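Quick sanity check, Iron complex transport system permease protein:
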Amino acid sequence: MTCDTTSGPDVALRRRPARTRLTWLLVVLTALLLAMTASVAFGSRIVGWADITAALGGIHDTLDQAAVVKRLPRTVLAALVGAALALSGAVMQGVTRNPLADPGILGVNMGAMLAIAVAMATVGMHTATMYIWVAIAGAAVSALFVYAVGSLGRGGATPLKIALAGAATSAALASLVVAVVLPRGDIAENFQSWQIGGVGGATWDSIGQVLPFLLAGLAVCLLCARALNSLALGDELAAGLGERVALVRGIAAAGAVVLCGAATAVAGPIAFVGLIVPHLCRLLVGLDHRWLLPFATLAGAVLLTAADVAGRVVNRPDEIEAGIITALIGAPFFIYVVRRQKVREL
């Protein structure tokens, strides 16, 4: 059984006119094109349009053209990781009906980080594929643990309990990461640069190794869009509509964990993208996951690409990692979401 078998009543979803959605789709696609162009053009040196087109055409004779070639994989990876994290956050919010759900806030990123730290310190890893598998396993274990702890007690897995469980788990796992890495000077330097979160070390090889995982997670999450609409109506009503609630939750959550784990493996634990983007997209296209998930994917690519560009521009010729930029944006947004009284549950 796939997740795309049962549809909840459309009247239960806040909808937007098709013209409005198509207009915003054009806006987001334009923003993504502009962000990716800026990512290629701006950095320690500014590259003109003539050099960009020449480099894309295969001419690499000047320093500016060489800079374009070097920035291309970084631009592509930023878009892929941003899309993966935003889609993962949107699906996690839909599965848990928790407006605070985000791979970083729920401890999923930190679980992937701890798994990589332990593997580096014990068995050693030499390929991006090994990093990805280990990160996905760590993310899955952390997600299951947080959901289990948040489900304890009266009322089950409420949004507040899951958020608190995620925050506590993140803090505990962060301490374990320090305990694992600190005594190992041989891995500490590389690990510390990775754990900040950024796409500066992107290569076409690493993109090629992570791309199958991202595509698999993307397919699973998008196939679950219609079923997530049913879950938004409540478990009892969703079951009454013929939805296998536990199975749908498990499949959708698995897709989100694969996306988060793979993105964390290649870019480090970048937080708040999965929190900010889904909320903004709901304002634009409504609650229908068949529209929300694709929009969140595109908007996440825009956000992380723009954050990476900002990190290169504001402190030239040095850089500020994209994970720091998203944290500066996301922390105030998180406080805003927490203080809103109408978003205790989706």
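Posting the structure with no commentary besides this: The domain at 17-343 is CATH 1.10.3470.10 (ABC transporter involved in vitamin B12 uptake, BtuC).
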